[in-house]
Every structure is written in C-alpha cells, then in structure tokens.
User: Fold ABC transporter permease subunit from Nitratireductor arenosus.
Amino acid sequence: MSMKRVATAVASRLVIIIPYLWLLVFFLVPFLIVFKISLSGTVIAMPPYTPVFSFADGVSGFFANLARLSIDNYLWLVEDALYVNAYISSIVIAAVSTAITMLVGFPIAYGMARAPAALRPTLLMLVILPFWTSFLIRVYAWIGILKPEGLLNQFLLWLGVIDEPLIILNTHTAIFIGIVYSYLPFMVLPLYASLEKMDYSLIEAAQDLGCPPIAAFWKITFPLAIPGVVAGCLLVFIPAVGEFVIPDLLGGSRTLMIGKTLWSEFFNNRDWPVSSAVAVVLLLILVVPIMYFQQVQARAQEQDR
Assistant:
C-alpha cells in the first residue's frame, strides 16, 4: 500500500474518530459524573454527597462505597408531585411554544425562500441579527415591554384598544412570548434550508391542473418541508424544556418548570444527588425526540435512494 493511501486511510479514520472523542469528553464523561452523583446520598460536607466509584480508600473502600449505591433519589422524583408536575409543565410549555414558533416561523421562512436571490442574504442576516446581542439582555428587554407600565400597555392605551393595563408579565403568556422570540431563528433557518431547495414549478403545475393554493400547500409545499419542520421543532423543543432564564425572568416565582426546579435543588437546597437525578431524567426524556428525528432522517434518506 502506498504512502498516499495510508495517509488517506488515516485521515478518513480521524474524521470519524474526532467527533466521537468530542462526544466522549464533553458529553459522555460529564453525563457519567452526573449519573454517579445521582446514585449517591446527601451529606453536609464539601462536596455535599457521599463519594461512590472512588478508589481514594483503596480497593476495599471502592467496594464499600459501591455498596452505598442507591436509586432513592430517582424514587423520590416519582413520589414527590413537585418534580412530576415540573416535568409535565415543562413539556407542555415547550410543546405549545414550539407549535407557536412553527406557526410564526413558517411564513417567514417561506417568504425568505420565495424572495429574490439578491435579497435572501440580507433577510438571512436579519434573522440571525438578534444573536449579536446578549440573550440575557434581550430577555430583560421584554420585561420593560410586557410590564403593566411597559411599552406594550402604553401603546395599547394610547390607541384606545384597552382601558387598563394588561397583566402579561409573570404569566405563561410572557413565557411563550419569550421562548418564541428567543428561539425563532432556530425554527426559521431549518425551514428556510428545506424550502429554498424546493422546486416551485411543482406548485405551478398543480395550479395549472386546477389545484387550489391551499390544497397545493398541504399536498406539495408542506410535505417537502417536513425535514425542516422536524429539525426546527427539535431545535426549539429540546432547549425550551430545560429553559431557566425565560421562566425565571418573565414567568415569575410561581412558574413551575424543571429548569428552575433543578437550579433550586442545586444552589438553594445544595442537594446535588437529587438535582443530578433530575438532570439525568430530563436528558432521558429529551433522548426520545432525538431518536425520533434520527428515524425520520433515516427514512428520508431511504426514500431519496
């Protein structure tokens, strides 16, 4: 085998190995550490949990610590209604926010895809422009807009649409607004990528054959955009489930979401094992839509073949 072929083989293997090493170091290892903490017990010490899988005390100490492994933290999550309700509330809020984001983002992406080619880079820049500003600052700005004496209520009062200020801040409505605004680019960009590649002559042919515009949309445009819809929904839903900043700032103290619950357990109660169990269960919940997306992608690739 020539040196060129050897170099090519090594390079091809490195292309495969490097992403796996990245996942191993920055995902699998931290997950195993969190999982290990979730199986330990809480103590008043630093760190505030009993060490497990540790060789600090030798082999005998390792097996002694191994005997202390417990799933009590996971049983506690099931027994305490707070955590169950937090998971359910997070999933519902994330699902509703994702649906609203898709309804708002699809027309934007469609308009961008149908815009003149010379104008598309500018429209694309306008979509990603909010990322040039701090996420925290943008969320804080919505407090000034949505509060009773904020810009939105002042504008509606000036128009005469309302007689008294609306209570929007510290409600689920404010959370929906914050999530839709913050994660809208994550929905628009995958949809735009799918719609831009679509052959719009198919719509013209359908209309020439007497197909109404709405029927042509559901039979041609939307099916071809499904990969972008699935990708956009996952990119919005997955981070929205564990969102902490938006519910804390816009939803108020009464908002129950798993991100806030995890933060409270970790920093306020200093219960690292329980908060680790919360994080592990949250990750397992999010694995389901990821696996579904992989199956959809595999089916789409098989159909293309």
Residues 3-38 form the longest helix (36 residues). Residues 71-304 form a domain with the MetI-like fold fold (CATH 1.10.3720.10). The CA atoms of residues 85 and 292 lie 24 Å apart.
